[in-house]
Amino acid sequence: MSFAIFLDVDGVLNTRKTVIGSPDGHIGVDDTRIRILAKVIKKYGGGEIVLTSDWKNVRIGDDLDYLKGKLMEHGLEISAMTEDHWNNRGQGIQDYLEEHSEIDEYVILDDNRFDFDDFPKLWERLLITDGIENAAFASKTPAVEAILFREYIKEFS
């Protein structure tokens, strides 16, 4: 059994209210939110982080290194990145899952809906956020892993 977290950054590890800056002058990430993510992943039993955020394309260099460093401070690391254009994020995750059949459980943390509703299994595992602590189900019938993950978020928020 393999578990993955498909992670967006903006709107998950920060919000518009975040005052921390990144090295390149963009909005940074909040340690409190990374701490919540780390605790949830640990309680879930571990998992790989797959970066879906546009940080992988737009913030190459200092900002991406900054993100990796902030995650490392909490014992987390990015295992992989999806390959997609930002508004086809669902397709990028679907392609990634097809290439990695070992992943049988996953959740998606994102503050946007993009094309996720085109993929019913993704939609059931999508947690819409305004900061990780405000995760909500996208689907009226969420998958079990989304339910557990959200419960753990609420526990550590």
Which descriptor suits the 3D outline?
Answer: globular
Tell me the span between the first and last alpha carbons. 27 Å
Figure out the total of helices.
Answer: 6
Largest sheet: 6 strands, mixed
Low-confidence stretches: none
| Helix content estimate | 25-40%
Overall pLDDT: 95
Reading side by side through the largest sheet, how are the strands ordered? Answer: 3-2-1-4-5-6
Q: Can you offer a commentary on this structure?
A:
- With 157 residues, the protein is α/β, with parallel strands linked by helices.
- It contains six helices and six strands; from the N terminus they run E-H-E-H-H-E-H-E-H-E-E-H.
- A six-stranded mixed beta sheet has the order 3-2-1-4-5-6.
- Helix 1 crosses helix 6.
